[in-house]
Amino acid sequence: MRRDVLSLIVGWTMMAMIIPLSFSFVITWWLDGFSTASVSFLLPIIISGVIGLSLLSIGVRSDTTERLRDREAFAAVALAWPVAVLVGSLPFWLGGVFHGPFTDGSSMADIGRGFVNSWFESMSGFTTTGSTVIEQSMSPNCVGSTPDCINAQPKGILIWRSLTQWLGGMGIIMLGLMLLSRVLGGGMALARAELTGPSLSRLRPKLQQTAIALWTIYIVLTVLEIALLWWLGGMSAFDAFNHGLTTLPTGGFSTHDASIGFYDSAIIETIIIVFMFLAGINFTLIWFAWERQWDKVLGDQEGRYYTYLLLVATTFIFIALLVQGGEMNESFRDSVFQVVSIGTSTGYGSSDYMPWPVVTHIILFLLMIIGASAGSTGGGLKMLRVTMAFKVAWREIGRISQPNRIVRIRMNGEVVERERLGLIVGMLFVWTGLFALACVLLAMTMPNSDFETVVSVVASSLGNTGPALGDYGPSNTWASMGTPSLLITSVLMWFGRLELMTALLLLHPRTWAREEREAPDRASVKLIRELFVKMEEKSEERKK
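The structure assignment produced for this chain is given below.
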């Protein structure tokens, strides 16, 4: 492992973090005053700059700009995220969203728990999970019986809260990928380590152009949703801006405790449903639609299966609500919105689904696990992995009756390589093992919670969904969790956002094995020697 390469990547990431922090500082100054802005953002900006400059000036060697390898890329991404989350948590802690060092009358215990809350809120934001611990018991800004605790927070900090999800949706490494691709080769490895799904398609010949194309799609859809929510939906400019920032990354942070249910508007729900669905499909398909390559859009198997899953789930839940005695229009609105919200791992709530029939809870739980499409901003295992896993299982069942038959797994008409299938099966095995272990650990730290609550919290955290079942449904925050539980779930969010393998790579001992660089002259001698050996082997083959 070339640790100076890690310093380069993490250093550039910290320098890139200064941009959104500075933007939030200006916005907070405008909306809440200079005092709130300086207390909340000046120190994080300084810390981010100091860390970035220190890593770039001290940790980087003159020969660092050698081509980046996969192991280094995955390790760098896994390390950069917790550092960014830590810096991103400081505005919540310093700005008084939770008890911090500048909060009057706070004990050391309150300040310590405030830091944990801030860390959790930041991790939930950057990983686009959307779970929150902002409520009356935890926030000094919500005094007594404040009816809407989230909306009582400083407006600039709420924008920062939404911005963490918008940045996390595309990826904080992708933010600086255009710089990194010029400084260092192997940028595709960085993108593969951070973007969700088993594969990443190049939309343009160069990776830098692909990054620009992805960000263009992301920004255009965000601006379009903000405009529609403000113009057609009747949202305030502030609320429209925040919900536009949190829908496209499938994040789910809202500016109100009641989430989307606060507005009780069919128009707003329809607009958000459309953009949640778009955020949950592969961005490559959106690009193809942009270029009017409709044959590729309509012919994509994952996109079709993803759409079928949402339609089937909506139908079952709609029927279940009608059987329970629900009104037709309301049942249809609630079923469509919650299926798309949970299925894309966005996590908005238009109604409380806990009183719904048990069968609806099972369907929503399965949607948490499956998630959206690969190459989207959604969480979960991804429809592509689940589809190919089913194809592998079906092939093995067929071999029982026809053992000599050769069946190749295909996706979109192309044969899937055995190495890729093995990686997917391994990913599913690791996910299952981590899920089981997390359930045991969380049950130990939450002894008073029932089975449904523990299992759904783990699924929601790993799937980056947000709301769970049981005690932590859509109408409840996660503030009642103890500190150990919050730390465990925040780690699970990190694992889920980086698709397990990227984060788990840090735990492998070979990742950190020191590596000695060869001197340039020795490297050239080695290359010449290898060439001579190959020439001798070819001459011997000709003689034979």
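Interim note for the steering committee: Residues 175-188, 193-200, 517-529 have pLDDT under 50 and may be disordered. The two ends are 43 Å apart (CA to CA).
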